[in-house]
Specification:
Shape: elongated
Structural class: alpha+beta
CATH class of the largest domain: Alpha Beta
CATH topology of the largest domain: CRO Repressor
Largest sheet: 4 strands, antiparallel
GO cellular component, one term: plasma membrane
Radius of gyration: 26 Å
Membrane topology: Multi-pass membrane protein
Subcellular location: Cell membrane
CATH architecture of the largest domain: 2-Layer Sandwich
Distance between the termini: 58 Å
CATH superfamily of the largest domain: bsu07140 like domains
Keywords: Cell membrane, Membrane, Transmembrane, Transmembrane helix
Number of helices: 7
Protein name: DUF421 domain-containing protein
């Protein structure tokens, strides 16, 4: 293996300057076209819009450093993608069914302090979701009445009032790490799979809601906003 080939290959000074110019031009075009889409930030991107961004990147990447790829054809691709985006979003605004197919639908993740089990389409990374809860100062599921995973990936939360907070599954990392199939003392425990809280007397038990047997001692602290 030649380190010269790895880092430089046939690169010469003139083309290095050209790469800088190409990159500045294409990056500026990307910023302008993204501004024309009307989006404000990455957190607002739907799956369709992520696909559009990937298309932008693919069209803009090669002209930055490939000698044989001209800039104008890539600009045509970028403009075409922009027009496609504008057309699809306009039609989606006129047709709710098409919008639902394109963007997906919001999904209920938590109801009444427990994870939703009857949604076959529900698919999320639990660790990431628990991190979202912690960012909203949530210590356990008993503080949450409803949690909805939006099509943008954001989580909408509706809380119990202080007087209605009930025992729930802790979400803090050090506490959550103590989950176990063996129960050392009787008390209220939360199923780590579905969040159901039950009073358990024996050394082990199976959740009557999801038939799992991994538990974590429930807590009922109030939310501090």
């Amino acid at each position: 293996m030649s380190w010269y080939d790895v880092f430089l290959k046939d690169l010469d000074f003139t083309f290095a300057i050209e790469i800088v110019v190409r990159t500045l031009i294409m990056f500026t075009l990307i910023l302008v076209i993204l501004r024309l889409t009307g989006k404000k930030g990455v957190r607002q991107l739907s799956i369709f819009e992520v696909a559009i961004i990937i298309g932008f990147g693919s069209a803009a990447g090669d002209p930055m450093f490939v000698k044989d790829v001209a800039i104008v054809p890539s600009v045509i691709v970028l403009v075409t993608i922009l027009l496609l985006y504008r057309s699809v979003t306009w039609f989606a605004a006129k047709n709710e069914r098409f919008e639902s197919i394109l963007e997906g639908e919001p999904q209920y993740v938590i109801e009444e302090g427990m994870f939703v089990l009857d949604d076959d389409n529900l698919n999320f990374a639990k660790d990431e979701f628990l991190a979202e809860l912690r960012q909203q100062s949530i210590e356990h599921l008993g503080q949450v009445r409803i949690a909805i995973l939006e099509t943008t990936g954001n989580v909408s939360l509706f809380y119990y009032s202080d007087e209605d907070v009930k025992p729930g599954m802790p979400v803090l990392p050090k506490v959550y790490a103590q989950k176990s199939t063996v129960i050392n003392a009787e008390g209220e425990y939360a199923c780590t799979y579905c969040g159901k809280v039950a009073f358990i007397k024996g050394t082990s038990s199976t959740c009557g809601r999801c038939n799992k047997n991994e538990w974590l001692q429930a807590i009922n602290t109030l939310r501090v906003s």
